## 1
Amino acid sequence: MEDKGRRWVLVTAIAPIAWGSTYFVTRHLLPPDTALWGAVIRCLPAGLLVLLVTRRLPRGAWWWRSIVLGTLTVGGLNVLVYVAAQRLATSLAATIMSTSAAALLLLSWMMLRQRPTLRAAGGAVLGIVGVIVMLQPGGGDADGWGIAASVVAMLSSSLGFVLTRRWGADVPPLTMTAWQLIAGSLVVAPVAIVVEGAPPALDGPALLGFAYIILVATAVAYAAWFTGLARLPGAVVGVIGLLNPVTGVLLGVVVAHEPFGPAQLLGLVLVVVGVLAGIRPAGPAGPDGPAPAPAARPLVRGERRRRA
């Protein structure tokens, strides 16, 4: 991969590292049982900050597209991640989300006509087996609602990212970040008022946690991720996404002293190996995407006359 490709890889890596830390921050610093307001407080200020930089509002179809994408990748996603982070060990929640690389392969096949190779399908299966191993007895806190929230969050974000690639080729990454963050927040805000009432009171640790999540794990992270989606092949972005569970596991074990036994280790290894094998390019395409299309055949004299 060329130097420019490495630079975009490093930029994209900011997102999964920051998102992996979100589980720890949410579980240990933010108020519990406020998943809806947690998503609004996290995403709306971040979206407004980015909008101040881009100063560009949606036009035409992008009004409803922003709502759809914002619900999938921001509003609904962050509510579910909040629930998962409060109910699951950091390492387990982050590892379940790592299967999004396999989901991206399958959804890209269904929606973008990018048929996965046999190696890709096998890697996806191996990654799912790794998650199952993580959920075996002794694999940590396996709360049923937390697991369901993580799985739905993974599918929601994967669908939203595939649609972003399909619809947003002409939209700059920062602009896409602002539109989706604000739209997703506005979708969740009325539900938060009805279901949870007034916004939660925030103490010092919660204010510090939200400050980090708003600036780093949301504004910067989403901008970095959408930049990667625009600049790198989807397979490369999927590999970079594995830094999410790695960060979650390291923080959970080192800082929070969460359990990490043979089941977690084996499951994590299977997920990492499976996704790496599944998104490894086959043939001469290389890590930077498919081989370029052959050059067009020059027109002969008769064809030039007909074209004229």
## 2
Amino acid sequence: MHEPAAREQLAARAHRVREHIVEMCSGPEGGHLGGSMSCVEILVALFFHTMNVDPADPGRAERDMFVLSKGHAAMALYAVLAERGFIAPEEIGTFCRPGGRLATHGNAAVPGVEFATGSLGHGLALANGTAWAQRRRGGTPARTYVLLGDGELQEGSVWEAAQVSRALNAGNLVAVIDVNGFQQTGAVGEVSPGAPVADRWNGFGWHTVEVDGHDPAALCAAFDEAAQTDGPTAVVCRTVKAQGTGVLAGRAVSHFVRLDTAKRARVLAGLRQTAPPGGTKGAPRHA
């Protein structure tokens, strides 16, 4: 298992991941910019601090597993996998291109992608299965992390699975909820108002932690806390849709975007304004 990265290193990684996402959205098909940008720090904290994974042996039986339930954020996962060494950074330039592996939604042919996801509401049930299998293996169980979106919580299958997680006392299961406040058709609170997200998970008997989803240190601390908790943990992350992009941040129109030359330049300018010290050094560039 790699050594946990310092906060500054995680911030620099997150900046490079965002640049990868901009490049993918600048291709002929465009991509789900908003929901990918909102979960960047979450994925960076998991793959560079928390999870026991090995890019040289991605299928190792003892590995921690990550399930991307909000499958439309696959660009963020691909970008993190490129930074972590699961795939070559050059492959980012093949996103949604003929013959390429990097599809709009997660493709299990990509090392580090455990399941093909896209239809919302299924990831937690899959994670229940992997967490259960990890505990059946014996010894100290590996852990499963599953990322959901707040709009996705409107799917009843999420709550059926959450009830099963509690019944299984799945102490090696962590649900991470990206609460960016938007779904495809508008603000989540306007489309389907409901009880606060943390209250809902608490109501299902989950240990629940609320954090700033763009604070690497807070995220790492929450995942460390989850590892010491009996039963499943929900980490509720307050985020901004299209975080770091400037003109598109916090806006529903960022859900799916194709960046032409002018828009790409404006978004990259927004990223430069939020770059950490030294964050652009060695930044990726793709054709």
## 3
Amino acid sequence: MSRLMHVASGPYAPPVPARTLTAVSADGARLHVEVHGPEKAPVVVLAHGWTCSTAFWAAQIRDLSADHRVIAYDQRGHGRSPASPACSTDTLADDLEAVLLATLAPGEKAVVAGHSMGGMTVMAACGRPAFRAHAAAVLLCSTGSSRLVAESTVVPLRAGRLRTWLTGRILASSAPLGPVTPLARRVLKYATMGAGSAPHMVEACARIVHACPRRARHSWGKVLSMLDLDHGVQQLRVPTAVIAGTADRLTPPVHARALVATLPLCVGLTELPGLGHMTPVEAPETVTSRIRSLVSTYTQVKEGA
């Protein structure tokens, strides 16, 4: 289990959920799930990325839960979800299915938003029965479907075999991150955020990332280094919006543009100038607004429900 080191106040302090529950995945893995906001409101499901937790969505949860039911869960091995030896795109899909089945009534629709590995989770799950039954629309933030290592610009070298090899070693590293120090903040900001990111944003991301257990970071990093979900993009047949930061080094905008070109029902690409990989933290209002727009356009609450 991770060492939870969240910020204690401000927009990035995790809100207290209305209730929590445990969803059980296909292989028995137990997933920590939080439910925020009124029970009979339009539903949003949030899937966080690699090395993160439900705390990553704090700004979105705080805003949306005023008039939405917001469901957020910790990916296995992250946050309060115990580690599991099974790490693959199939288990990502299993876990999202388990969360949807545990929290939504039959026929109930939700907007599903995924950041980074959370977006990859959506692509992996989009052909599953539970996803097709419950997903009304999707928001993909700072994500890609394949060639993550080859396209990453974290290593400041010309594209080629050396850069790809070094990036792969970094992605799957099992080295400890250690405490959140000034140097650690600078490294994290360089790798994952835009140059103009405010210190409180960097601090929030650093605390979340450094809380991720080393084993989970290593195991999922290996999965991401070999990722190929191009087939999943073609099966994502619900309205899907895409958000990307133009200064994202982990999943550069080439990924977002490839998604837009392939998605069957893309409803827009938002490129955020100068922002990095952590778009829900770096541009919380923009991400929240896009989720709200998808909810109002593609979901309806029945009268008397």
## 4
Amino acid sequence: MGRIAYVNGAYVRHADAAVHIEDRGYQLADAVYEVWAMSDGRLCDPEGHFARLERSLGELSIDMPMSRAALTTVLKETVRRNRIRDGLVYLQVSRGVAPRDHAFPIEPTPPAVVVTVKRTDPAAAEARAVGGVSVITTPENRWGRCDIKTVGLLPNVLAKQAARSAGAAEAWFVDADGLVTEGASSNAWIVTAEGVLVTRDTSANILRGVTRETLLEVARTENIRIEERAFTLEEALTAREAFFTGAGALLMPVVAIDGQPVGTGRPGPVATRLRSLYIAEARAAAI
């Protein structure tokens, strides 16, 4: 069976899916998105993703396109029609279709909704986690509202491409003060020499990662000391361990930054254990 997408009320062949040329998401990046990891056909971290979606839409004064219950039905039906058990579910909501103008449309427009699903390979992801990955750093050059999950991602795209060109899995943004903010598509973490788990606080200009929040809860149940604060690139380079989190990566150990090994140059015990615990928790809470 071919891939199926949901577009503005209809389930259509992925190859035939289309949005209007004056969709404001397409022309002006006037849209938000969410990505759910999917385990055994179920959505992981559902509450966190729905809450962040509603917050992002609210920050841009875009109406929820439908109730949370109705949207859940749409997401699950798209998953069912694609017959995918493990993968990623992508949702995009734009302000809708209107003649191009920077200001909001004068006449109310219904939000435009797109849902797609793609398969992932858990075994391949686990193999990457066992070996660990590298990251590069790049200067922070994004806008001042990274807490809103908008589709305006060009700096992230360029950072991710730079990482790929360097043979790395991710790029970490570093601000003018030498502080790591977050990754191009993930949140950044370190484990200090004292065993403290550190990740940037959400009062900073970073995305409020859903995987990040769930992992913090998991770490607390393990009585791991946690500090939500800024950390420098130098701290990261001298840390015992490092890793990043996100719906796509889940938790991915980092073994090198800008070509320099982190810790032993192998995934550490904290990251390895937390990855296992997070996956178990995400699967148990999936809907």
